[in-house]
Design brief:
With 113 residues, the protein is an alpha+beta fold. The chain contains two helices and five strands. It has one domain: 2-Layer Sandwich (HIT family, subunit A), CATH 3.30.428.10. It binds adenosine monophosphate. Adenosine monophosphate (AMP) binds next to loops.
């Protein structure tokens, strides 16, 4: 997708602070962190949002969650805990329409859902 910020990050056209990469996924630090640790995990395939997912994405989704847990461990926040979050659509506050999961840690989120 030519006008997608995250596709541009994947192509190296926009710089990013990479924390993980494999053949299916890329993870990098959020430019405006909402927590001391704030990583975005994105599929290399351009998928607009959770609304565009189908049964063929089951393996990819499992891989995303397992990778989030691995990144949390690698960054030393697994023990204290973390949140994996996806915003789908405008009412949830999705601003970038390339599927992504936020990995948030380093703080307590008890007051949120
Ligand atoms: P969402 O609101 O769920 O769509 O999340 C989009 C996230 O992407 C926000 O937390 C932004 O701060 C983050 N973001 C936007 N542009 C960049 C960028 N160039 N590098 C890193 N994070 C970005």
């Amino acid at each position: 997708m030519d006008d997608c910020i995250f596709c541009k990050i994947l192509k190296g056209e926009i710089p990013s602070d990479k924390v993980y990469e494999d053949e299916l996924l890329y993870a990098f630090r959020d430019i405006a962190p909402a927590a001391p640790v704030h990583v975005l995990i994105i599929p290399k395939e351009h998928i607009e949002s959770a609304n565009a997912l189908n049964a063929e994405h089951k393996e990819l989704l499992g891989h995303i969650v397992l990778t989030a847990a691995k990144i949390a461990k690698d960054l030393g926040v697994a023990e204290d805990g973390y949140r994996i979050l996806n915003n789908c659509g405008k009412n949830a506050g999705q601003t970038v329409f390339h599927l992504h999961f936020h990995l948030l840690a380093g703080d307590e989120f008890k007051n949120l859902v």
